[in-house]
């Protein structure tokens, strides 16, 4: 009985031990679910890989899960691989394995460490999604926003895809499986390091290479590798450039020289033309004053036009030097942009980098041509172009104008009165009086076409002659009289009589005839100066000489009376 009892007890113990071992084995296997385990590749069939992970059944994993983006699958029988055990058995009795989840689990652990320590990670951009791109971080998929791809907007990201790139993890949530990365943060950090190094070694005159980052109306910003410099439009080339886009484009690589560098404000001024020879060196010898050259009109302003003589050398044709005859015309109506013209060098200032040019000097001077063809005294016919308060402008041959001053319109009428007889567009005959080539003035006359009637009238009148006048007007200062053929004269108040009491204009009447002595013939004002007083004084002298003197006992009244009677008798006889 004892032996039977011992046998039963031993058998029961063996069962309990086996059950414990089985339970321990099953518990261990069950605890492997949801973890990464190692397995051996048993076979590769078509697109599936058979893997033994040490369980009672093998598992199958799709071959593509072992692929690395952008590279072919490198896997063979006997390789040891790590896979993720999802379940002990599926409906087919096989273990459910996943290589992707294994890589993701491993990657998440490393990524969390990198995120905590703010370290960079390496990934491959492999796809596009709304708002950005997908990145493979050694099995874990991360999101790369479009704004975090580069420092500057990237139009074509194709060259970056499929290539390992450094990234900075901005945010990650393992429970949701979200990872956000940035390539821009890595570039900015590298840029800051490069900037510090570049600025520390930067000096004026240094030649660098850069990339055109932005273009404005006044210049272009060039990225020198972490720091930007301004390339002003005037420093791009020696020739005139109206807008930087004429010579540069965004993304273009250029060689520049540091023109100025302010270490305090970190402002860098760059230049491209400084790397080329200065065309202004020896400009006086190349363009001597008086020489003629052909050039191209590059710019037109209100005050003139700029003409390019060679790349980098421009001169200004002032509006006053553009045409002999067109004085108040905008330069744009004389020349046009890009037009080829012939100009003459008028002045060169190499210090101020200025050349004064003349356009009209290459054409015949119409004033010189006119004076050769039509010297003073020539009679012409022309059209009244304009009427001003001081005369008429008459169009002449050679597309030039001459002026008839209002004083040269009529011999007898006043200028204000004579100018009323003309209107714009009238054709008139004129006489050339004078030509001033330097001042570009031609003086014309209309009244000079006929002889001066005043000269004919006063031809028989001399100074000190006594003439008979007719009073035409009485003023406070004297009387106006008509002398000969309607020409006027004036007798001042003090010349009305030798007696002060008789020097009163009001004692004369309009239409009354008086005798007066000619004291002046003013051809400029066309007036004759007269004096009754001078006539009386002259008569007194003659009477004294002829009829005696007061010393002989005769009174002055007797002498003058006898003289008057004699004068009246002569007048009556005449």
Features:
574 residues, 9 helices, 5-stranded mixed barrel
Give a description of the structure:
- The chain is rod-shaped, with a radius of gyration of 58 Å.
- The protein has helices at residues 2-32, 99-116, 184-201, 283-286, 366-373, 415-418, 453-458, 532-547, 556-573; strands at residues 35-45, 48-52, 59-62, 80-87, 95-98, 120-129, 132-137, 140-145, 164-173, 178-182, 207-215, 219-223, 228-232, 253-262, 267-271, 292-301, 304-310, 313-318, 340-349, 354-358, 379-388, 391-396, 400-405, 427-436, 441-445, 466-475, 478-482, 488-492, 513-522, 527-531.
- The protein is built from nine helices and 30 strands.
- The strands form six sheets. The protein has a five-stranded mixed β-barrel. Strands 8-7-6-9-10 form a five-stranded antiparallel beta sheet. Strands 11-12-13-15-14 form a five-stranded mixed barrel.
- The protein is of the alpha+beta class.
- Strand 7 and strand 8 form a beta hairpin.
Write the layout of secondary structure elements.
Blueprint: H1 2-32, E1 35-45, E2 48-52, E3 59-62, E4 80-87, E5 95-98, H2 99-116, E6 120-129, E7 132-137, E8 140-145, E9 164-173, E10 178-182, H3 184-201, E11 207-215, E12 219-223, E13 228-232, E14 253-262, E15 267-271, H4 283-286, E16 292-301, E17 304-310, E18 313-318, E19 340-349, E20 354-358, H5 366-373, E21 379-388, E22 391-396, E23 400-405, H6 415-418, E24 427-436, E25 441-445, H7 453-458, E26 466-475, E27 478-482, E28 488-492, E29 513-522, E30 527-531, H8 532-547, H9 556-573
Parallel strand pairs: 3-5, 13-15, 18-20, 23-25, 28-30
Antiparallel strand pairs: 1-2, 1-4, 2-3, 4-5, 6-7, 6-9, 7-8, 9-10, 11-12, 11-14, 12-13, 14-15, 16-17, 16-19, 17-18, 19-20, 21-22, 21-24, 22-23, 24-25, 26-27, 26-29, 27-28, 29-30
Helix pairs in contact: 8-9
């Amino acid at each position: 009985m004892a032996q039977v009892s011992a046998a039963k007890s031993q058998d029961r113990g063996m069962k309990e031990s086996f059950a414990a071992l089985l339970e321990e084995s099953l518990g261990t296997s069950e605890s492997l679910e949801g973890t990464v385990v190692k397995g051996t590749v048993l076979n590769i069939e078509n697109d599936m890989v058979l893997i033994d992970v040490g369980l009672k059944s093998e598992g199958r994993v799709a071959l593509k899960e072992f692929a690395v983006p952008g590279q072919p699958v490198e896997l063979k029988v006997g390789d040891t691989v790590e896979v993720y055990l999802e379940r002990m058995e599926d409906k087919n009795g096989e273990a459910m394995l996943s290589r992707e989840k294994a890589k993701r689990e491993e990657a998440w652990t490393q990524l969390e460490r990198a995120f905590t320590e703010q370290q960079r990670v390496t990934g491959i951009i492999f796809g596009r999604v709304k708002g950005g791109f997908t990145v493979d971080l050694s099995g874990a998929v991360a999101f790369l926003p479009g704004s975090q791809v580069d420092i500057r907007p990237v139009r074509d990201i194709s060259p970056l895809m499929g290539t390992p790139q450094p990234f900075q993890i901005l945010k990650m949530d393992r429970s949701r499986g979200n990872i956000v990365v940035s390539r821009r943060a890595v570039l900015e950090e590298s840029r800051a390091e490069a900037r510090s190094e570049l600025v520390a070694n930067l000096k004026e005159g240094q030649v660098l290479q850069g990339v055109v980052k932005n273009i404005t109306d006044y210049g272009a910003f060039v990225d020198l590798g972490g720091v930007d410099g301004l390339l002003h439009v005037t420093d791009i080339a020696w020739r005139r450039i109206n807008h930087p886009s004429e010579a540069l484009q965004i993304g273009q690589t250029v060689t520049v020289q540091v023109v100025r560098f302010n270490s305090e404000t970190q402002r860098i001024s760059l230049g491209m033309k400084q790397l080329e020879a200065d065309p202004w060196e020896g400009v006086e010898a190349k363009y001597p004053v008086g020489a003629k050259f052909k050039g191209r009109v590059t710019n037109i302003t209100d005050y003139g036009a700029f003409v390019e003589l060679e790349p980098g050398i421009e001169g200004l044709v002032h509006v006053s030097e553009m045409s002999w005859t067109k004085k108040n015309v905008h330069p744009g109506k004389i020349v046009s942009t890009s037009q080829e013209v012939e100009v003459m060098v008028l002045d060169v200032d190499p210090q101020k980098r200025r050349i004064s040019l003349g356009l009209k000097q290459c054409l015949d001077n119409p004033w010189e041509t006119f004076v050769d063809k039509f010297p003073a005294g020539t009679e012409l016919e022309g059209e009244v172009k304009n009427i001003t308060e001081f005369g008429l402008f008459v169009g002449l041959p050679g597309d030039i104008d001459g002026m008839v001053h209002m004083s040269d319109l009529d011999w007898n009428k006043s200028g204000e009165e004579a100018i009323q007889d003309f209107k714009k567009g009238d054709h008139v005959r004129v006489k050339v009086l004078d030509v001033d080539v330097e001042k570009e003035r031609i003086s014309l006359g209309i009244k000079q076409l006929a002889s001066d009637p005043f000269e004919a009238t006063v031809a028989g009148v001399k100074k000190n002659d006594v003439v008979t006048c007719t009073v035409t007007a009485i003023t406070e200062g004297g009387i106006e009289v008509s002398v000969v053929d309607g020409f006027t004269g004036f007798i001042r108040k003090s010349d009305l009589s030798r007696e002060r009491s008789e020097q009163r204009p009001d004692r004369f009447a309009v239409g009354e005839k008086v005798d007066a002595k000619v004291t002046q013939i003013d051809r400029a004002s066309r007036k004759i100066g007269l004096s009754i007083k001078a006539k009386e004084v002259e008569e007194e002298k003659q009477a004294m000489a002829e009829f005696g003197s007061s010393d002989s006992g005769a009174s002055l009244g007797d002498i003058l009376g006898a003289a008057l009677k004699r004068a009246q008798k002569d007048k009556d006889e005449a």
